[in-house]
Amino acid sequence: MKPVPLTVLAAENRAAEQGFEHSCERGVGEILAVLAATTPLGGRILELGTGFGVGLAWILTGLGSRTDVEVVSIERDAERVSFLTEVDLPVHVSIVEGDIGALLPALGRFDLIFADAEAGKWTGLELTFAALAPQGLLLVDDMDLSRYGSEKDRSTVEKVRKVLTTDSRLAAVELDVASGIILASRRGAVP
């Protein structure tokens, strides 16, 4: 078994110390790192985060020493963002605090989007699609219906799953990994 990167362990520890149990799971993170590594030269990555930097740590793990990729993490919770500002982040990484739905339309397009937060995944999915560059990759976690106890939550997840797997703008696959993943690519013109 491959060791977990120290930056990921530090982020997991920050979340655990605060009693936060909804961070990016390791199986999702490992896939996220691989996808980040495929980002084209001068590309852009967006994380719709939940606040303690676990997903962001996996993205940076995948990028390794690359600094040509702009990484933006939108975090909605100012208190959690304060934990991320204490981390020594590379200059090509920016943390934006605020409402994802309000911020997303002004940020441009991205080659990889990790939709981990409620906004941009459970709500505002169309905004996430609009931010995905042609041939860009979208990773959505928490798609395993068996993890949800309430009918309302299962219904929400089922609607998102249906949109992701049937939208003609995307080619998508469901993966039975960790919390359940849907990986999609935005169809685009081939040069």
Give the key terms.
alpha/beta, seven-stranded mixed beta sheet, 7 strands, 7 helices, about 190 residues, Rossmann fold, about 25% strand
Please tell me about this protein's structure.
It is a single chain. The chain has 191 residues and is α/β, with parallel strands linked by helices. The protein has one domain (6-186): Vaccinia Virus protein VP39 (Rossmann fold). It is built from 7 helices and 7 strands. It has helices at residues 6-17, 26-37, 54-63, 78-85, 100-103, 125-131, 151-166; strands spanning 44-48, 70-75, 93-97, 110-115, 132-140, 170-175, 181-186. A 7-stranded mixed β-sheet has the order 3-2-1-4-5-7-6, sandwiched between helices. β2, α4 and β3 form a beta-alpha-beta unit. α1 runs antiparallel to α3 (54-63) and α2 (26-37) packs parallel to α3. The mean pLDDT is 86.
- The coarse overall form would be globular
CATH architecture: 3-Layer(aba) Sandwich
Overall tally of structural domains = 1
Instruction: Give the helix level as a range of percent.
Output: 25-40%
What's the helix count?
Answer: 7
**Spatial order of the strands forming the largest sheet:** 3-2-1-4-5-7-6
Tell me how many strands there are: 7
